[in-house]
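Give me the fold.
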Amino acid sequence: MKEAPEKGERETAFNRCGIDSVEIPRMERLLLDASREELLRIFSAQELDDAGEGQGRAARLAARFAAKEACLKLFPRETALENVTATDFSVVRGNYGAPRVRCSANAAIALGRNRIARIELSLTHDRSGATAIALAVPDAIQPSLAGRILYHLLPFRREIILGNLRRVFGGRIAESEIVRLAQAHYGHLWRMIVEFLTYPLMPAAKREEIARVENLEALRRALEQGKGALVLTGHFGNFEIATAGGISRFPEARGRFYFLRRPFKPRWLENYVAKRALRAGFGTLPKNGSLDWLMQRLEAGDLVVFPFDQHAGRRDGIRVEFFGHAAGTFRSLALIAQASGAPVVPASSWREPGGTHVLRFEEALPHITCDDFSEEIRRNTRAYNKALELLVLRHPEQWWWAHRRWK
């Protein structure tokens, strides 16, 4: 018998199972009446192709539609708010032909906020109907001993961290899991401090060995446009180590990476960090008063890294949704992208369990154009926030939760 949850605890991913059935004659009627263009509003092109033609096509598509509906039942809140729809889930063939779920960006955000690692599928059908079962596999986290100790003994901004985590994950996962995420975050901060002190002492070969770059081709494709690149990122992982490793594998970009950021305090720390950055091959630009220099760098084909996860006041920002809540967000990235034509390339970094630091670039975001200039800026800024949400949820314990992102 399943034990009743403790007071305040909510259903975890282990308990989530979606089941749905579809009558095959109903799908046969749809296939007779609908064109391929109409079917593409329900199924992906790959799903239609995998279903084949002739006998059995209706049953295979019925099973896929049942799988979409079963996946939706795992996310009652997001489904009710229309944050996800059936088209955000598609069925593809995995290893040995087994069905697996492919998620859109909207679905990936839903999985991340509910701390679901993946969805397992089981499909079956007989002559009259098709049935699908979707099982959510939890993405549980185990904080390190250092993280658990620091969480209790050094409560630096602990209430801010917990408040931010509850804003993103609250009502979707158990409070105990939110605490574990906070403890894992403290463990990440401890490792960053250790790495900050020991990284300069490592031999050059060792520094290259502990860093890896993924999807560098996406950045190269963006640079081929000849307008430089704006790298959209946040305070992820240990960006110093990951970026230094990335430059070593992308030598033509050495001296062409510039970080747009506020200077550190005290002054001696800013000078120390700036010198380390220059030795690693990237420079810094102040957030205030550097627009002309920034535009010159883009015209020269350089890369400007734009941390996008800090609160922006009324003068510099606009209120745009971030994880379902309005947040003061810098409008400058959209303005610069619109004025320069430079592509915006999302990027993030994280530390793997073995200690390897990964820097990953995503495909450049398409610029949204509107007749109304203010609406164009707002829509693009929201698109940047959405891209950032996906990056945060990839390794949530390694994002800087101590920010007052929502004010």
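Confidence is low (pLDDT under 50) at residues 1-13.
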